[in-house]
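User: We ran a pulldown and think these components assemble together. Before we commit to crystallization trials, I'd like a predicted model of the whole complex to look at. Sequences follow.
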Amino acid sequence: MVTPAGQDASCCIPLTAAPITPDDATELSRKFKALADPTRVRLLSLVAAHEGGEACVCDITEPVGLSQPTVSHHLKILVETGLLAREQRGTWAFYSVVPGALGHLSDVLRDPTARETQGLVKG
Amino acid sequence: MVTPAGQDASCCIPLTAAPITPDDATELSRKFKALADPTRVRLLSLVAAHEGGEACVCDITEPVGLSQPTVSHHLKILVETGLLAREQRGTWAFYSVVPGALGHLSDVLRDPTARETQGLVKG
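Assistant: Here's a predicted model for the assembly, 246 residues in total across the polymer chains.
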């Protein structure tokens, strides 16, 4: 990146990675909106905390203290936004966390230096 | 974790990590709410993409195509929710991503197996 002529260089820090595109930002903000609810954050965490990173509605209804229809409603929103995957096996539906659902932004929020290893474009 | 007697064992998967507490879920959902906006997702990504993981308002106003007061308003929300840190240096305010702002949930969303290395309690 070239610093525009005449701009106060003392305030300007160069880009070292490719920022997110507007379209990706819109898609990600939809996922964050789905997580702007304490119950859905707990459900996502509960699914991830089970063996193999997957759980059945029956495993996670009791810990959140809500009815199964309410839990199923929240899980549906997490599936629709691509944060959880759902697989029907006989009587039960199993839910698992979708890896990389938040793209490199989850790395950024984990550790700002993590993106250095993500192979993003250097400026 | 002990499977309750009489429950259909075929549907039950054991816990292998500690799920998030209700208080932490509430705190995290506030941060996700701050990110339920495409502009704020872009700003967070832009800050992280700059050298050293920090940027000045002057670095990120032009890329998002908004006025500096509007950008400052969005940055203030990201600071208030603990996603960005703000440091005043002379004329300019510099913003940096707060590492670990989403706790182990950002690891869960990055890779469901990542939590295995987080030292969380095994069930």
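Chain A has a mean pLDDT of 80. That may be worth checking against your pulldown data before setting up trials.

User: Thanks, that helps.
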